[in-house]
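Appendix B. Chain record.
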Amino acid sequence: MGVVVPIDGGKEAKASVKPLVDLTSADMALVNQLILSKTGSDVTMIPEVAQHLIDSGGKRLRPMLTIAAARMCGYGDDATGTKGLEHHITLAASVEFMHTATLLHDDVVDESDMRRGKQSARIVWGNQASVLVGDFLLGQAFRMMVDAGSMDALDVLSTASTVIAEGEVMQLAAAQSMETTEDDYMAVIRGKTAALFSAACEVGPILAGSEKPVRDAFRSYGMNLGLAFQLIDDALDYGGSKADLGKNVGDDFHEGKITLPVLLAYRRGNAEEQEFWRKAMEGDSADEQALAEAMELLAKHGAIPDTVARARHYGEMARDALAPLPAGSYKDALLEVVEFCVSRVS
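Structure tokens predicted for this chain:
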């Protein structure tokens, strides 16, 4: 049964990542070449599994953020003394490998069948191969961090790796528990999603030798963009389309994944409605009929629009973080990325 909750109140979806794509295209071509070279292995299954996910159509937003942040801060210019250096390419590829590794691990933990509109790697090759290839990619990511030669960048990205793992464990601990609070949930997505956005942005000014206020601005931009991005994904799972998600609408519900829309509807519901959520999310009752009822409750309590409103709040915080920095094409593109992320539901 294809039930979709309409999402009202957003702007017409005109924002795009195209300005960012255009500005970073030359550098991203080098990033892609490096990614291909670093997935090579004599162990045949490693490049097969890695390429399955890498070639599946992701926007590669996180490495583009690294490139844009570095360029916006003057990396590669005479003024910064970095002309001719390509460490931003190395770190951007490292960021993408970290992201790809977490996707492989996530699909095993979540028992996901689909990823970006294709069968997940765990369905094709099994859980063990997915976990181990994810480990291989993390190892390659850390090797590239070392190659970049910046201890500060290594510190930021390695810390992010730890925080991501902590977020995953927090999510596992909170899984299928309706006692999860909104604060608990925000802590989970701050770790498992936003931390990598934040690190991807911060390493750019680090390479350019920018001062602490600039680093702080990019770190805050990335963190708040990541929170907005994940909250919109949560809303899209109940009010989007398969094309938007790269997976089936309602997958989070069927997997018993407790996200913000569910938490809001549960907290606002009466005793009977709360019992429905407990049975659906904590038990084994998340079938199509239950999904239809869940959609009705989400609509009744305004859970989707309120999730989008929270995402927009974090989007504004991301914009404000960059406000003190000089105007320019890279800044314009990064600001448009924020609107693109939050307007995906419009």
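Further analysis of this model is presented in Appendix C.
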